[in-house]
């Protein structure tokens, strides 16, 4: 299996697919499932590589140097956009999550970044962080996050709604423990408090909703994290791991709607996934980048005010591969 990953060659040809909005921890997750199950890696890798779209020059050449104390940890930026082309400079990132994978591969830390966070966009001054895509495409979005934490991004991935919907259905649905009951403003869906079973369509409505909440995007981010918990539990369940048909269908459903950087082919994703083979849903910790709440920019925009002290602490945790210690000390995990 490991030898295959070393020898596997990525096809040169690429094609574009529509990309639109939310982000979930799917890239590593799906390859993890495939590798744990075993026996289907070659065909799954071919399916992944032939289906995904490569984003050329996604990672800036002048990225920050990795701190030696970070060891073998990796940072993966997951982005959802509101345009159909991930390379389009007309798009804004609707959802953004930074996944930190520690060097010991014991878990994964998933940090949501509020899309209206007011921060420095290299070359453009202070803007909402989701404006980076519109101003300079994926490379500038990556650069904005790197600048915020002064730490390099190792990989970037973008996901489309349709792949998200297809994956949910391929897994046979996802159960979530919904904390706040609400009616969707997008479709005729009601989500009561407690355990709710979601299919592809209702899952999209669940993670997209923000108008139904007094806290708007804050609650939407919490719901996205709730859904991720349910998705991970479903994907890494015994019923999935022992079902090669479900695994193959999941990879086939999601890969045409994923766009990734040039270094994240099936071999690279597979090697990372294999190193995470012991991670389960209970090992993944999710939190939101702390902020100082809502505010107004000097030009009158409604913004989310960043917490510079918290960002400095998280930057230190990324540099020292100590995210677990940071979350424990701040009671955020």
From TrEMBL:
<feature type="transmembrane region" description="Helical">
    <location>
        <begin position="21"/>
        <end position="42"/>
    </location>
</feature>
<feature type="domain" description="Cell envelope-related transcriptional attenuator">
    <location>
        <begin position="92"/>
        <end position="235"/>
    </location>
</feature>
<protein>
    <submittedName>
        <fullName>LCP family protein</fullName>
    </submittedName>
</protein>
<dbReference type="InterPro" id="IPR050922">
    <property type="entry name" value="LytR/CpsA/Psr_CW_biosynth"/>
</dbReference>
<keyword id="KW-0472">Membrane</keyword>
<keyword id="KW-0812">Transmembrane</keyword>
<dbReference type="Pfam" id="PF03816">
    <property type="entry name" value="LytR_cpsA_psr"/>
</dbReference>
<keyword id="KW-1133">Transmembrane helix</keyword>
<dbReference type="InterPro" id="IPR004474">
    <property type="entry name" value="LytR_CpsA_psr"/>
</dbReference>
<comment type="similarity">
    <text>Belongs to the LytR/CpsA/Psr (LCP) family.</text>
</comment>
């Amino acid at each position: 299996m490991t030898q295959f990953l070393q020898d596997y060659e990525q096809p040169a040809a690429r094609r574009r697919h529509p990309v639109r909005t939310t982000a979930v921890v799917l890239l590593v997750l799906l390859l993890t499932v495939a590798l744990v199950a075993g026996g289907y890696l070659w065909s799954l890798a071919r399916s992944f590589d032939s289906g995904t779209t490569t984003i050329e020059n996604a990672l800036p050449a002048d990225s920050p140097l990795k701190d030696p104390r970070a060891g073998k940890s990796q940072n993966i930026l997951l982005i959802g956009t509101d345009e159909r082309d991930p390379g389009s400079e007309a798009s804004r990132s609707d959802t953004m999550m930074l996944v930190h994978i520690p060097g010991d591969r014991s878990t994964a830390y998933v940090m949501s970044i509020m899309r209206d966070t007011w921060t420095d966009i290299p070359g453009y001054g202070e803007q909402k962080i989701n404006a980076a895509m519109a101003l300079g495409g994926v490379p500038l979005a990556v650069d904005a996050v790197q600048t915020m934490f002064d730490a390099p991004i190792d990989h970037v991935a973008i996901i489309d709604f349709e792949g998200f919907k297809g994956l949910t259905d391929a897994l046979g649905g996802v159960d979530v423990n919904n904390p706040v009951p609400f009616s969707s403003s997008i479709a005729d869906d009601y989500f009561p408090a407690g355990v709710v079973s979601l299919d592809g369509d209702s899952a999209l409505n669940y993670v997209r909703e923000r108008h139904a909440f007094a806290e708007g995007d804050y609650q939407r981010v919490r719901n996205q994290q709730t859904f991720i918990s349910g998705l991970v539990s479903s994907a890494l369940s015994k019923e999935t791991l022992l079902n090669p048909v479900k695994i193959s269908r999941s990879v086939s459903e999601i890969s045409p709607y994923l766009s990734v950087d040039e270094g994240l082919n099936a071999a690279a994703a597979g090697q990372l996934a294999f190193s995470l083979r012991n991670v389960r849903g209970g090992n993944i910790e999710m939190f939101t980048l702390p902020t100082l709440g809502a505010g107004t920019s000097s030009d009158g925009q409604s913004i989310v005010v960043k917490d510079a002290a918290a960002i400095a602490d998280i930057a230190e945790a990324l540099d020292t591969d100590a995210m677990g210690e940071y979350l424990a000390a701040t009671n955020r995990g």
